[in-house]
Amino acid sequence: MLKERLAHPDCNAGVVFDNIESRLYKTAINALELIMRATPTQKLQVVALVELIDDDKLPQSSIIHPGRYQEPILGKEELKPI
């Protein structure tokens, strides 16, 4: 079934499998094995997002914008002559 669905034109640029944990199989590894069998000639990239928990057992979050982070630029008053 998965192999047939992936053959559709709307999947030709790639697909995202989100939340692959299910009661239908033991672990997420089983899901990855099924995906790999359905797509033997494709490259599989896995991104695992893990919720960070602080010492008080509360979730932590932050936003990272790739390409937007820049090192601070020193002002003229902070520059020292060589």
The neighbouring-strand order within the major sheet is 1-2
First CA to last CA: what distance?
68 Å
Q: How many DSSP-defined strands?
A: 2
User: Percent helix among the residues?
Assistant: 10-25%
Stretches with pLDDT under 50, minimum 5 residues? 72-82
Task: Note the total helix count.
Answer: 2
Major sheet size, sense and barrel closure: 2 strands, antiparallel
Radius of gyration: 22 Å
**What portion of the residues fall into strands of 2 or more residues?**
under 5%
| Helix-strand sequence | HHEE
Short description:
With 82 residues, this protein is mostly helical. It is built from two helices and two strands. A hairpin with a 5-residue loop joins strand 1 and strand 2.
Describe the structure.
This protein is mainly α and 82 residues long. 20% of the residues lie in helices and 5% in strands. The protein has a two-stranded antiparallel ribbon with strand order 1-2. Strand 1 (52-53) and strand 2 (59-60) form a beta hairpin. The longest helix is centred in the middle third of the chain and has 11 residues, at 28-38. The N and C termini lie far apart (68 Å). The model is unreliable at 72-82 (pLDDT under 50).
